[in-house]
Amino acid sequence: MTSAVSYELNESVATITMDDGKVNVLGPAMQSALNEALDSAEKDSAKAVVLTGNQRVFSGGFDLEVFGSGDPKAALAMLAGGFELSVRCLTFPAPVIMAATGPAIAMGGFLLLSGDHRVGSARTKCQAIEVKIGMTIPNAALEIMRMRLTPAAFHRGASLASTYVGDDAVIGGWLDALAEPADVLAEAQKAAAEAAQLHSKSHLATKLKARESALRAIRDGIDGLATEFSLG
């Protein structure tokens, strides 16, 4: 792991913290470090995982410098890596609890939606910002949104880049629970401790069945990224 990601195991709950000192961009280095931390959680047989950001933000999304580098292979790899990370969270053998300590924007929002339970606060701005900055939302991201958001929140969030905060974020499906900003991580860890009491094999088998069609659609989106964006 890099200094941008820390890992801590407390009893049966693993806490993974993103903190690059800025907005926790999900570039190649952050993706690699998060996967390494998830590897550690599996190796340690963690019964629940908390994924959190720093005190400023959960994640601002993909690294725009990679998109602007003029290297289509690097852009494709970053896109695929981000959505593979979402799939890993959606299919992780233990419950994954997201602690949205601040805004979750673009890929940061899609990663947030990939948790089994998501805790945020009034500071947690949730937004798929792509159409505001001249980008088209990838099919894989749309399928993640479609799976977790209400129909109204999905369509407004995707086509209008609508922002969801507070109760609206819970009602729309971006978040499951709210806490005071200073208490988000503690509340997420409390939820993780409760989730750690689940029968792990039944938990995994059930969520895989519940998400089967969505996971298939997300996988199709990942496999089609090069064609979708002519990045081969």
UniProtKB/TrEMBL annotation:
**UniProt xrefs under SUPFAM superfamilies:** ClpP/crotonase
Q: CDD domains from the xrefs?
A: crotonase-like
Recorded superkingdom: Bacteria
Show the Gene3D superfamilies listed in the entry.
2-enoyl-CoA Hydratase, Chain A, domain 1
UniProt xrefs under Pfam families? ECH_1
Entry's transmembrane regions: none
For this protein, the record's InterPro entries field holds: ClpP/crotonase-like_dom_sf, Enoyl-CoA_hydra/iso
NCBIfam families, per the entry: PRK06213.1
The name under which this protein is listed is Crotonase/enoyl-CoA hydratase family protein
